[in-house]
Amino acid sequence: MFVTTFHDQDLTGAEFERVRLNNVSMRSVDLSGAQLRGVALHGVRMRGVELLNVDIYGEIENVTVNGVDIGPLVEAELNRRMPERAKMRPDDPGGFREAWATLDRLWAGTVARARMFPEASLHRTVDDEWSFIQTLRHLNFATAAWVERMILGNASPWHPLDLPWDEAPGWDGIPWDREAQPSLDEVLTIRRARQATVREVIAELTDEQLASEVTRTEPGWPRFERFALNECLRIVLNEEWEHRLYAERDLDALEKGK
Predict the structure, then answer these.
(1) What's the pLDDT score for residue 128?
(2) At 221, phi and psi to the nearest 5?
(3) If residue 137 lies in a helix (H) or strand (E), which one and from where to where?
(4) Secondary structure class of 212 (helix, strand, coil)
């Protein structure tokens, strides 16, 4: 196996994209000011670490800091700040219906707020994140993937304006035009149709369906065998919840003129 060793090297400003660093060993390394996005840190062990003025936003599970698992602490605090957040992991049909109704209400307020901005602002990115309109395009993609494809069996449910996540590997037949500039209403027309599909699936949801599994092996994405149907719906709930928070955060920044 070919192994590269960096010793007493200055890689300041280097860019790594789609690079595998599995099982690397780092000692006396300065990562001050590093920008990490879409990075998997599963199984990482850190010792003698100085972690000051660090901003982390992502999934936190089984993360131990100085002997304390911080995951449950973070979850409890987020649920305290946003009590409706705890409803985004339902386990019965009524819970899914309540969660979707909550998201409908919250997103209606966010879209109404976005309409107060000039359309050009809704195409602006903040801190290299998606613009407001790109965020909606991604949610359209997520709904098509996890509900229309995985649950309803449409092998190719895509609209040309659907937007996968930035670190996606790319697939034949799935649109991915990050630079498209559709209007807010154009994207919302697609979104309303996708939301209606989710609403219909959840309205008819039964305990038997929630306990079932789905399999999709056709070319494209997602491709899973015996994937839990309830997890498909939870992924959509999580995408809707988290991306609305991102959108509100970025609208705050736009409002402040950042």
Answers:
(1) 87
(2) -150, 145
(3) helix 132-143
(4) coil
